[in-house]
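This entry is listed below:
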Amino acid sequence: MNDSAVVVFTARGFDRLLSDGGSGSWVLSERRALRCKYVVCVQNRDPADNHNNDWGGVSEPHKNAFFIGKISDVVVSPEWDGTRPTRWLIRVSEYAKVEYPNMWDGARNPVAYSSLSGLGIDENALNFNKMPDVDVRSPEIVSEDEPYPDGLSIQQAKILLSKKYEVSVESIEIIIRA
């Protein structure tokens, strides 16, 4: 059974997740998050992260999992300002309001990957509700052209390395082991 989950430590509360259409603005692997079935939101009440409880509408006790959503998509966050790294919104089609205490292990990165079973959550015990319709307007991502879409030749790599390290092309050896 696929009960894979993105687990996020968020300063946004329950109502904010509903009005945003999911959980964002995360720096994460879009592809990896899309392979997950669920997002598990764990409340972060640390004043350094949630601007004195007034920014994200925190609603639950610190480190409590309070929202589990079925991931429908991962899109560029409407709050992303166009700088790198890209920030993502995990869109949710259905959600369950839950209460699981002490679900954050203190990791510094607020995004982790796990599974419901790994977190001790029984997938079959969850009561899901339809997520409200939210019009999410993601900014356009302007992709930078790949300078070498077919990869580099050995000679091109030598030239670039010689420029980077300010040495002659002849002094660079590249060995490929297959």
About this structure: The beta strands are 4-10, 22-26, 38-43, 65-76, 88-100, 111-115, 129-130. The chain has two domains: 4-130, 145-178. The radius of gyration is 21 Å. The helical segments are 14-20, 30-35, 47-50, 154-165.
